[in-house]
Every structure is written in C-alpha cells, then in structure tokens.
Amino acid sequence: MTAPGTPAILEVDDLRVAFPTRGGLVHAVRGVSFSVGREKVAIVGESGSGKSMTGRAIIGAVPRTGTVTAKRLAFDGMDLLALPPARRRALAGRRIAMVLQDPKFSLNPVMRVGEQIAEGFRVHGIARGAEARDRALAMLEAVRIRDPGRVYRAYPHELSGGMGQRAMIAMMLAPGPDLLIADEPTSALDVTVQAQVLAIIDDLVSRSGMGLIFISHDLDLVARFCDRVIVMLAGRIVESVAASDLRRVSHPYAQGLLRCVPRIDGGQGDLPTLSRDAIWRAEGSAP
Question: For site-directed labelling of 36, which of 2, 23, 76, 122 has its Cα 20 to 30 A away?
Fold first, then answer.
C-alpha cells in the first residue's frame, strides 16, 4: 500500500519473473505485490532476494530469456505488460527512469557525457540543438557538479565514481520522469560522496514530486532516507513497514537482517549470522 493520502502511480500485483535453466525454471520474483505513490519506497534484502529484478521488471529491462507475468503491473493507470514494445520503451525512457549501481556499465564509454544527457532531450522531443545542450548543462548543475562545461565534454572514464554517478542521475532525470528506480546508487561510493549523492536525489525527488523506489542492502541508510521499507527474501516480500518502524519489524528474517548490521557499540564478540527457515520461502505477498 502507498503512504496515507498518497495516490498510487505504480501498482504491482502478483509480479513474477522466471528464467529457464537446464534444471528447470528459476523463479527470481515470486508473487510480489505493492504500490508506490509520490513517496520514497525502499526495497531491501540480501543479494539474490529479487529486489533488483523487481525494478528491472517494472521498467521492462528483464533479459529476453526471462518471463514476466502479473495480475496487474500498471503505471499511471496503464497496463505495462499490455503496451506495445515501442510504447513501453518510450514510457520507460520518458516517465520511468532507472539509475544503476555502477555508472561505468551504464554510460556509453565512447560518447561524451554531456552528449548522452542531451540525447535524452532529443530522443523524447523535449529539445534539440543548442537548447538540448543548455538543458544538459543545467542538469549537470542540478546534480551539483561545479564545472558542468568540463564534465559535459568529458568521457565516462575521465570521471571519478561519485562524479560518474551524478552524471548518471542527471541523464536519468533529464526527461522529467514521474518514477525513479535507484538500484544501489551509492553502494560503490565512499561515505562522504554517498551522503552527497543521497542529498541530490532527495532534493530532486522532493522538488519534482516524483515517486522513488530505492533498492539497497543498507538498512540504516533506508531508515533515514525513505518513507516505507519493503523487505524481500527469495523473490518474495516478507514484510512492509514505515521506515520509522524499521527497528520494530516482526518477521524473523527482517529482524535477522537488522541484527547483522555492525554497531560501533556492539562489543567484541562475533557478528551475528543470518539464519533462514525453509518455511519463510513459502510465505510473503502470495502463496
């Protein structure tokens, strides 16, 4: 459910993603249901829990070998699975954007950074020529890059990790999307740069009124940054709580994730390990 008083712009009901293997179908996402309004919603869980694949299924970036089904997967009232491929791609670029974990794998290495941002304005018919360039420079300024002209002319390999991630955010937000999916956007950055990038995302999301799905494994971070938190295990949702209530989760797996977070005042004993009960894989948002 969305936060009280927040109409849903994204509705997900019984989302499933499966991949064929020699040993049979592998179910990466199994019966996930939630909705997102003009708010910041976190999806957390360990590696392999299905959180990133859920984001990719929403934007339509699941590899071709995968199968995506849902009782309902709707954005702004439009059935995403029923849209023609060309319309789905146009929607994904214009109104739904996704920031990936490492800009090195998202930015074209042989194309200048500024041209990649300006291309978003041209492809979606927002601006062309000098106007597209000016808008791209304005987006680089919006993500707090001090010398936007230099970064505009630079190639991705010439930028630091934090600078590349800011450029990636500028490129994804250039068309003015209504929903941003941020998949581990700060995990490869040091703590200082991480805080700066989060502040940029928070400011841009708040000013534009867009919805945000923030995919992360950092529970302390999402508790401070997001409005709601969805906890996933083995492709299913096991708990969904307000971020302010994250320390009071009831599911044993979610409690285990919290216990495994290192604490400065945690003493000198061994870190807790995460146990998993087989029955938890059969629980969640769908039977």
Answer: 122
CA atoms within 13 A on the CB side of 232: 27
Which H or E run contains 137? helix 129-142
Cα distances (Å, whole numbers) of residue 251 to 14, 77, 91, 235, 277:
20, 32, 36, 16, 11
Query: 115-136 pLDDT, tens per residue?
Result: 999 988 888 778 888 898 999 9
Joined together, the tokens standing for residue 111 give 């194309």
Quick check: helix, strand or coil at residue 107?
Answer: coil
81: β partners: none
CA distance 108 to 200: 23
Closest residue by Cα to residue 18 from 36, 31, 1: 31
pTM to 2 decimal places: 0.85
Asked whether the beta carbons of 6 and 39 are under 8 A apart, the reply is yes
**What is d(CA 6, CA 197) in angstroms, rounded to the nearest whole number?**
25
> Residue 55 belongs to what H/E stretch?
helix 51-59
Return all residues near 166 (Cβ < 8 A) that are at least 6 apart.
Answer: 140, 143, 144, 145, 197, 200
Say which DSSP state 190 is in: -
Q: Is 235 a residue whose pLDDT tops 50?
A: yes
Give the pLDDT confidence of 172-190 residue by residue, as tens digits.
888 888 999 999 887 767 7
